[in-house]
Amino acid sequence: MSDEPQASGQQGVAGFMARAKDRAGEQVKKAANERVVRPFEHEFSGFMGNAISEGRLFSIADALGDYQLNDINVTDTTCEYCAVGCRYDVLSKDGTVLGTRPNPEKAPINGISTCVKGKFSHSYATNEDRLTQPLLKDDGEFREASWDEALDRVVEGLDGIRTEHGPNALGLVASSKSTNEANYVMQRFAREVIGTNNIDNCNRLCHAATVSGLSSTVGFGAASVGVEALEETDCYLITGSNTTESHPVFATMIKQNVKDNDADLLVFDPRKIQMAEYADQYSRIEPGYDTTWINGLIRCIIVNDLHDEEFIEERTTGFDQVVETVEKFTPEFVEEKAGVPPEELKNAAETIATADSCVFCWTLGLAEHAHGTENIYAMANLALITGHIGKPRAGLSPFRGQNNVQGGGGDMGPVPNNFPGYQPVTDEENRKKFANAYDMDVEEMPDREGFRITDMFLAAEQGDIRGMFIQGENPLISEPNIGHAREVLETLDFLAVQDIFLTDTAEHADVVLPATSSLESNGTYTASTRHVQLVKRAIDPIGNVKPDWKITQQLAERFGYDWEFSHASDIMEEINGLTPIYAGITHERLERHSEDGGLQWPVWDEDHPGTPYTYADQFQTTDGLAHMHPADTVEPSETPDDDYPLVMTSGRVLYQYHTGTMTFREPGDMSYTDRSFVEIHPETANAYSVSNGDMLDITSRHGETQAMAEITTRPNPGTIFIPMHYLHGGANNLTKEKPLDGPSRSPEYKVTDVRISVAESDAGPISAVPPSETDERSATGDD
């Protein structure tokens, strides 16, 4: 243990609710009969009782109405799933999580709401598959080892490569699942101990293009708005975001504002997602042509003199270049390329331009492209020409997908180009600052940008990366082209993985280090809205696991470095001394502010109240102005032909999370979506003689897979959709590792040309879990 201090037959929602209640009743009855939770009988009589069915959001007020709370451990903490930043009380007893209950007094973002995963998907933390002891691989087989032996082996492997090939022959991957403190320590380890900027994280595979585009346009690679805008704006433009499944709490806020205040909702997406049902206008677009229709909106606004000339003149540069660039994006051109009819383009342009306020919302459907940064330039330009930014209810709002990808994935500097706080590593003054703080000679601080994560895999293919240390990520599934990722991992000289389960990636490792889960950790996460919030240990760590930051610190000690951190709060004290946007943030202050909305960065000093929305007076650029960048790419990196006539796009489903490391261990999640599938439009299905439930062979120029057909009108005719979460049947069996977006080096996940056919030999649906576990897990109830 760590020495860190404690701190029915119905379908759809109706079916889910019925099964959830049945399972909950059975579980509570069984527990009572076994006299395990007899003292808590009163609190659990209404477990899973009330629901906001559309978003699968549950009122927990009744969930514990029949138990004595003084007999239950109650810990307020931050959710470990998406980056909405929901907070709730975790109710536990004897190391078991009984449930969660939103506490609106300490939940500035979600209030009384959580999604289904935040409510019920926490049993993974004590799952029997959890890693509880370090593992070493001898002769191709794992064996348990002591911490001393395992850490010594990691040091030997990393230092051996560094000595023979230099520090830049190593690649380090940090975790956006881990706390800000753990990610800060990981970047320090890379730069101070190893001597390389080859450190990256999953942000590269999701919103790196967002960070790149916004940083060079308005200054911060983050949302400019907070919760107020999402709850009260007059207009929303949502694109590339299946909000109800990926960010259900945000979706509920938006739908409530549309219903109660008649806010305008515009949805542009290749799939008719659930948000489209609530939209004033849904425009079905062709995958990969986002710059085209956004530029079409900009042109329409300018041509009709609807742009905010005063705002443009006083607060921006580059407008003339944008005007020139968008000239070719006529309504006819937009319809030809992107599929948006002229009347829809005109209506959306007028709605946005004439609204008193507008929030521009997107996720990976806008960012995961070979020209993703240009897509973000275009979206930022649209906000700037309409003046919908720098105001309480208007601005840019990228929804982040992993619980701490805003903080741990960017703010803390586990990236190859920035120190913490987006301070470039190529700037000599920044290098001096961090070298002095780390008691290094500035010449020892690496001065060139390192490899991004997909570039690491490409470099490893060429022999330029010889070893990797991967913390809390599963790139075998998350990297584009699973076949390529597997080949790279198999050829590395040394691989160490730090995680909570033996993931698909960890199976290829020489050493596996067991880390604490979120529920066993202390620290902070940063939400999509820039809220920095405390994470508190709710249950004791199981087995012999350690916090991520402590493992990294102990590795540093073996290299001869003494960092002297005794708690995560000590690390935050170092962070706020080096990172201006976090300068006023401490654990103690976050605890004090937990009941009045928390702290949103930038927090410039300990007297600063935080920043609910950014750019009120100036943009975070050298001259204080927003810098518009032309965006004129039209075509995606590949287009259909006779051999690959269809387009595959990818995304998330509500009941799974990223590569399934946690949710594949949740019986309720698995009983709902335990395997991959392929959505196909009825017209496309008819053309290929596909029936609902058929197993399909799907082949791209880069790989192949099988998945079960689900005939639905959600995708375009000619477009298919496959979820990202699965190894077997998942989208990344088909995606490509290059080309990458130029500025951000992000892969193109959203456009892959494919062909399909009904499988000649139907082996049946392929489950996401190993065969030995499938029967047991399929028989258990929904969560």
Automatic annotation (TrEMBL):
Q: Which InterPro entries match?
A: Asp_de-COase-like_dom_sf, Formate_Dh-H_N, Formate_DH_asu, MoPterin_dinucl-bd_dom, Mopterin_OxRdtase, Mopterin_OxRdtase_4Fe-4S_dom, Mopterin_OxRdtase_prok_CS, MopterinOxRdtase_cofactor_BS
| CDD domains documented for this protein | MopB_Formate-Dh-H
Q: Which UniProt keywords apply?
A: 4Fe-4S, Iron, Iron-sulfur, Metal-binding, Oxidoreductase
GO cellular component, alphabetical, reads: membrane
Chain segments carrying region Disordered: 733-783
Q: Where is the composition biased (Basic and acidic residues)?
A: 774-783
At the top level of its lineage, which domain of life is listed? Archaea
Annotated GO MF terms: 4 iron, 4 sulfur cluster binding; formate dehydrogenase (NAD+) activity; metal ion binding; molybdopterin cofactor binding; NADH dehydrogenase activity
Entry annotated with the keyword 4Fe-4S: yes
The answer, when asked if Iron is one of the entry's keywords, is: yes
In terms of PROSITE patterns, this protein maps to:
4FE4S_MOW_BIS_MGD, MOLYBDOPTERIN_PROK_1, MOLYBDOPTERIN_PROK_2
Q: Which GO terms describe its biological process?
A: formate metabolic process; respiratory electron transport chain
UniProt-listed SMART domains: Molybdop_Fe4S4
4Fe-4S Mo/W bis-MGD-type domain residues are 72-129
The entry sums up its family as follows: Belongs to the prokaryotic molybdopterin-containing oxidoreductase family.
Put simply, this protein is called: Formate dehydrogenase subunit alpha
Please tell me the species this chain comes from: Halocatena pleomorpha
UniProt lineage:
Archaea, Methanobacteriati, Methanobacteriota, Stenosarchaea group, Halobacteria
